[in-house]
Amino acid sequence: MKRSVLFVCLGNICRSPLAEGVFRAELERRGLTDQVHVDSCGTGGWHVGEGPDPRSVEVGLDHGVDIGDQRSRQLAASDYTQFQWLVAMDGDNQRVLERRAPSDASARIVRMLDYHPEGDRRDVPDPYYGGPQGFETVYRLLERSVPGLLEAVMTSGEGA
Ligand code: 4NP
Q1: Do the domain assignments include residue 126?
Q2: Chain-centre distance for alpha carbon 93
Q3: pLDDT single digits (tens) 32-45
């Protein structure tokens, strides 16, 4: 089974689309694009079908990561068996993921900042109601955490 990672936040328009984009960019840099299936979703469905928040698109482009083609979707029960890794952006997302897990769930549920080398924060803060600086903070947290997450994914003994 191909390695697979699903990034999860609340609305799938701010944090998890950027996480998906930063992770894809790291896969590309390392020539691993074909080895890992990547997607993102929200626990909530308010923005289903919409593109990412323009502030997320902009901060991505500032750093050479284009997330403009992504479309929001909501977490589905099938995600728990179709993905090996469900990566929550914050503790609320993680608790919802755990609560909704079907009995046949096989994915492991982790938190993005578990892979941040400094580890002094546990949540990627929700930037939706704030200014552009919040989006830059999100980007920086993701950028520092993605290498450790990718390392964990590639050394997990899963995948073929
Ligand atoms: P996200 O941010 O979870 O990082 O995509 C949010 C987007 C939308 C809402 C909340 C958070 N909302 O309430 O619509």
Answers
A1: yes
A2: 11
A3: 999 999 999 999 99
